Amino acid sequence: MGLKAILSKPLAAVLAWHINYVRKNAVICQQRVFNILIRKASNTAFGRDHQFSLIVTYEDFKKQVPLSDYEQLKFYIERIKSGEEDVLWPGKPIYLSKTSGTTSGTKFIPITTESINNHINSARNALLMYIHETGKTSFLNGKLLFLSGSPKLTTIQGIKTGRLSGIVNHHIPAYLQNNQVPNLETNSIEDWENKIEAILTEILSSPLTLISGIPPWVQMFFDSIGHRTGKAVQEVFPELSVYVYGGVSYEPYQSRMENSMGPNIDTIETYPASEGFIAYQDTRKEPGMLLVVDDGIFYEFIPLDCLENSQESRIELKDVCCDVNYAIVLTTNAGLWGYILGDTVKFTSIAPYRLVVTGRITHFISAFGEHVIAEEVDYAIRLVSAQMKAEVIEYTVAPQVNPEGELPYHEWFVEFGKLPVDIEAFRIAVDTVLQSKNSYYKDLIQGGILQNLKIKRMKKNAFISFMREEGKLGGQNKMPRLANNREIASKLAAYAY
Q1: Same-domain status, 284 and 393
Q2: Residue 80, domain extent
Q3: Residue pair 5/140 in contact by the 8 Å Cβ criterion
């Protein structure tokens, strides 16, 4: 056993003691974070504009700080980009995380000296809590592959700028840097397909023990292993034992991923975003991820049914309930204030506070009031695929509102790795399950407003080809599960049978 593996267990035990305290005192931790954020930012431009001097309680905060998205904060971020200090947070951010927005174009999310710790600490804690619970440390003796964006950074008025995964790459702890692959030159390759080939060339003879990345792009990497070697992943990397993922739901990809890397790989779920590292899996015994409540983020939640009255409906952590879909709102030591992240979450437990990500505010179908969300379509296709022994590689869903000569319907664009024996039975089963999950959808079907969903089969690598054409292949880019319009659907038609 290597020195890192030996030292990791006592370190994990100390962390577990701390995490156990935080679990039991989450509301107190949130109040402490809230007080620090208000005090430290009181003399910033945002703090003065919103009279932070008047804020003592959470109710004061709601009166003084309106909910915002990127567009509402863009005025302040542009001031930061022009070189101004003390705008959203004291001083200047050390990074601007560059991310693609669906409505705002390219977004620049500030990361400060204080907030970078949240990203690094939470990733570390996810691994250490895994070690503490399982006792498994051997993965620390091998190579750790982080499939991320390029670590190359540009500067805006002296502030380093790049993708979050590339920024975090510069903060890999020194004791893990010898384990990290790929090297800087390989990791800096911008073209995703060329990058994967270069990574394979670099690591094929390495003892790979851990891989981290978004499921569809890790699967693409696994497929490349098969194409290059003619062997299964577990044959090429027999010591691979841990997969760390985040960014999208793993369940739609789980069957195919397990077929690629073997069923005995342990997985660790995380919930990172440019705006903050929100949660991570702290145990394999309970569902959901532990909310990070003590590291610079103050949370608010808006019940999804109350989004139209979001200002009045926002609540703090102590008031949330299990099994309710909430839009998650962040206030952070990076200078985001009442920031609607865009994700929807559901708590699986409130003692401690664990949650799952259920979708995006903008990713739903409600062309007729059905409000179908990602959690529901993921469940339906996952269940039916397992029952019929089909393999789904990727899919997305959009409404067909005005089909010629027939009732409207939901159109599912599905790329199969393994077709169901009877695709018509598959279609009917998915529709039946979706109706059981969403009563509004069921009522519209039974009321003759909608017809049952239709499936459009996609060609091999259809979604990869689509993402390549859109310039979004690899990295942190994700395929939307749902859209309430035909913008993506109209483009995908070219990749269908």
Answers
A1: no
A2: 1-294
A3: yes
Taking alpha carbons only, the member of 226, 214, 149, 160 closest to residue 182 is 149
Cα separation of 330 and 68, whole Å? 10
Q: Does the predicted model carry a pTM greater than 0.70?
A: yes
Residue 253: CATH number of its domain: 3.40.50.12780
CA distance 497 to 491: 13
Clarify whether residues 185 and 266 are in a common domain: yes
Q: How far apart are CA 493 and CA 497, in angstroms?
A: 8
Name the average pLDDT for the chain. 93
Q: Which of 232, 262, 294 is a domain's end point?
A: 294
Which residue(s) pair with 159 in the sheet? 156
By the 8 A CB rule, do 308 and 314 touch? no
**pLDDT (tens digit per residue) in 91-102:** 999 999 998 754
Number of domains in the chain: 2
Task: Return left, alpha or beta for 388; rule: phi > 0 is left, psi -120 to 50 is alpha, else beta.
Answer: alpha
- β pairing state of 325-332 and 297-303: antiparallel
d(CA 156, CA 81): 6
Kindly state the average pLDDT of the residues 225-243: 94
pLDDT tens digits for range 362-408? 788 888 888 898 889 999 999 999 999 999 999 999 999 989 999 99
| Cα distance between residue 301 and residue 398, in whole Å | 27
User: By the 8 A CB rule, do 326 and 345 touch?
Assistant: yes
pLDDT bracket for residue 122 (50, 70, 90): very high
pLDDT at 369: 84
